[in-house]
């Protein structure tokens, strides 16, 4: 059970308000650093270990630079993410390209900057062959999908058989053989079987199946397996009644199966990679928004100045995000509200039938755990603009790490339309 604490106080929010209007995304530098350190320690037993932060979760150079201090590389899913990695001086070996349905030019660019390509499908070998003119990189990775259901004990965690990613068991064996014949020397195996798992068992269970597959692949294809990439999926406790994952326990669990399977098979030099996004950032970011309207019809509504463009997860997945009314942490939650944004979409609700303290106009609402897959999923529906991203630094100061969009940004792709001149945007 986790107590949902905020990393910012009402006093701090009032201070921030003097410079940066709500809504905004706020990140907690100390929280990010402490967590990155814990992850590093949890896998310190593995010599080649590296976390490749899933850029899509929080694609902000300031955040990436913090994580880089802990040895994190980046996992990119698209050309622009690769461009960001290149601009930030990530070196070959520090960039993973785990894409799917990949356009040819993205593969070409990934290869050009020395990213490790993680192939999503066996047919991509031919596709890549044409792009690279037969000159494959020395190291390649393949993504595995075991099909069926992924279970931990008796509970079904997810449904890989219904997921578009990865190769089947027989395909990955065949893929290794073909890649070897094309000159690839070193191999990696990647798999992502369940998202947002709140269980210390996910990684060890996944690792076990990948380690067994690695031994089989070595035996059947003679491939030199350099790394096993456990990918993302380690989740966070969004809800107050959930117990957060303990990364030290997870690291030890992976260590145990590593020794049992890989070390025992003479493969004790295989590196473990991870591509965590949510686990690295979600709890260390929040959306700060102000109550601007209250409405009493068939239900009680609180309208805030953020909407689904700032945080899409509740609208698209019905995802739970805890809400704290700043300064009212100790007041009874005796009011039932729907907390809404302003989009012309009834799904634009941050909370439905949520018990909260009595909310007054002007109150700051802190929406928790938005540090990953929050800002980055944002969009501009209804002509709403994306907010600023702010970093609460360890010394208590606040740094703007991305400015808010302006109407000029929104209209920028219409530059050919001279009618817009009369708006005098600057
Ligand atoms: C989204 C994604 C991740 C990160 O997932 P989290 O759930 O945020 O940890 C890692 N690898 C790949 C290939 C992904 O698509």
TrEMBL record:
Protein's UniProt keywords contain Transmembrane helix: no
Occurrences of domain Orn/DAP/Arg decarboxylase 2 C-terminal (ranges): 283-371
Keyword entries, A-Z: Decarboxylase, Lyase, Pyridoxal phosphate
EC numbers for this chain: 4.1.1.20
MF (Gene Ontology): diaminopimelate decarboxylase activity
Top EC class, one word: lyase
Necessary cofactors: pyridoxal 5'-phosphate
Domain Orn/DAP/Arg decarboxylase 2 N-terminal span(s) in chain numbering: 32-281
Family to which this protein belongs: Belongs to the Orn/Lys/Arg decarboxylase class-II family.
Protein's UniProt name: Diaminopimelate decarboxylase
Organism whose genome encodes this protein: [Lactobacillus] rogosae
């Amino acid at each position: 059970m986790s107590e949902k604490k905020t990393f910012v106080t009402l006093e701090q929010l009032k201070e921030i308000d003097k410079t940066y209007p709500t809504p905004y995304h706020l990140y907690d530098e100390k929280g990010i650093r402490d967590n990155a350190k814990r992850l590093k320690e949890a896998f310190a037993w593995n010599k080649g270990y590296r976390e490749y932060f899933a850029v899509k979760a929080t694609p902000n150079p300031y955040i990436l630079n913090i994580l880089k201090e802990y040895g994190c590389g980046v996992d990119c899913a698209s050309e622009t993410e690769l461009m960001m990695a290149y601009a930030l001086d990530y070196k070959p070996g520090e960039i993973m390209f785990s894409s799917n349905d990949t356009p040819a030019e993205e593969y070409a660019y990934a290869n050009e900057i020395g990213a490790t390509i993680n192939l999503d499908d066996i047919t991509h070998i031919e596709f890549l062959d044409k792009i690279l003119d037969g000159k494959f990189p020395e190291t390649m990775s393949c993504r595995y999908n075991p099909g069926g259901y992924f279970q931990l004990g008796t509970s079904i965690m997810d449904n890989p058989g219904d997921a578009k990613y990865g190769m089947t068991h027989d395909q990955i064996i065949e893929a290794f053989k073909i890649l070897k014949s094309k000159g690839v020397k070193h191999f990696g195996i990647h798999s992502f079987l369940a998202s947002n798992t709140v269980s210390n068992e996910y990684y060890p269970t996944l690792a076990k199946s990948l380690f067994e597959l690695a031994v089989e692949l070595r035996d059947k294809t003679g491939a030199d397996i350099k790394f096993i990439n456990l990918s993302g999926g380690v989740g966070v406790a969004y809800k107050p009644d959930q117990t957060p994952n303990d990364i030290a326990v997870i690291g030890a669990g992976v260590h145990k199966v590593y020794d049992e399977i890989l070390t025992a098979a003479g493969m004790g030099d295989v590196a473990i990679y991870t591509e965590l996004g949510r686990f690295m950032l979600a709890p260390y970011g929040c959306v700060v928004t102000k109550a601007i309207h209250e409405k009493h019809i068939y239900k009680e509504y609180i309208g805030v100045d953020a909407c689904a463009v700032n945080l899409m997860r509740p609208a698209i997945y019905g995802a739970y995000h805890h809400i704290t009314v700043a300064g009212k942490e100790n007041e009874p939650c005796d009011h039932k509200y729907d907390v809404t944004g302003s989009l012309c979409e009834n799904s634009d609700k941050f909370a439905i039938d949520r018990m909260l303290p009595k909310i007054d106009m002007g109150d700051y609402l802190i929406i928790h755990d938005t540090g990953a897959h929050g800002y980055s999923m944002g969009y501009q529906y209804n002509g709403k603009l994306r907010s600023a991203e702010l970093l609460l630094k360890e010394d208590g100061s606040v740094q703007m790490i991305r400015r808010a969009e302006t109407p000029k940004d929104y209209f920028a792709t219409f530059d050919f339309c001279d009618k817009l001149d009369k708006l005098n945007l600057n």
